[in-house]
Specification:
The chain has 192 residues and is an alpha+beta fold. Helix content is 37%, strand content 38%.
Length: 192
């Protein structure tokens, strides 16, 4: 029997949410990573895993790369999947540096299907399940934003970029110069 799978991205119109830190001890953030992910996403240790940890200790600064994933069941058919990547460096002498974190979230809906139940599920999704899917997408977005805000609050992070904030900046850039306070272009003055 086959599977019918719907995958919905949580952070539309952008796929990723970013967070940047610059200051003392950026590696300290990685030490409590698993505990904070479990606390904020409310999952067990088996649903929160480190995929990859890379260090380059040979030079100055020390470079690091870390990947995590969190899986949370939302319903019998739905699961939230969040991927987190952290890349940064720390100076050997001063013990300060920076890192950037990006988060990606999606909700995966899986149903057992054959040629007949496939059409029944599509009809059921159109009539009833689409509202629950929207609710799950909103829940995924809220978990990611809650984690970003928790990190910003506890680590005094400098920048949190969310799709809504980027859209506002984009709209401001697209305004005509007269609405931004700029005037008409003036020709350069001749010298001499």
């Amino acid at each position: 029997m086959g599977k019918l799978v719907f995958i919905d991205e949580c952070l539309v119109p952008r796929r990723l949410s970013y967070l940047n830190y610059q200051g003392p001890d950026p590696i300290g953030f990685l030490k409590d990573f698993k505990t904070t992910l479990r606390f904020v996403f409310d999952v067990s240790t088996t649903r929160c895993r480190e995929k990859k940890l890379l260090w380059d200790y040979t030079g100055d600064p020390i470079r690091f790369y870390n990947e995590w994933w969190v899986h949370k069941e939302l319903s019998r058919f739905s699961e939230m999947k969040v991927s987190i990547r952290v890349i940064g460096y720390v100076s050997k002498g001063k013990q300060d540096g920076n890192f950037g974190m990006e988060m990606y979230g999606e909700v995966e809906n899986k149903f057992d299907s054959n040629w007949f139940t496939k059409y029944i599920w599509i009809l059921y999704n159109y009539m009833f399940y689409s509202k629950l899917r929207e609710k799950n997408i909103q829940m995924c977005r809220e978990y990611i934003n809650r984690y970003m805000n928790w990190c910003k609050e506890h680590y005094n992070l400098t920048t949190v970029t969310t799709p809504e904030a980027e859209m506002e900046e984009f709209e401001e850039e697209m305004e005509p110069p007269s609405e931004r306070g700029g005037g008409e272009a003036k020709p350069p003055e001749e010298s001499g």
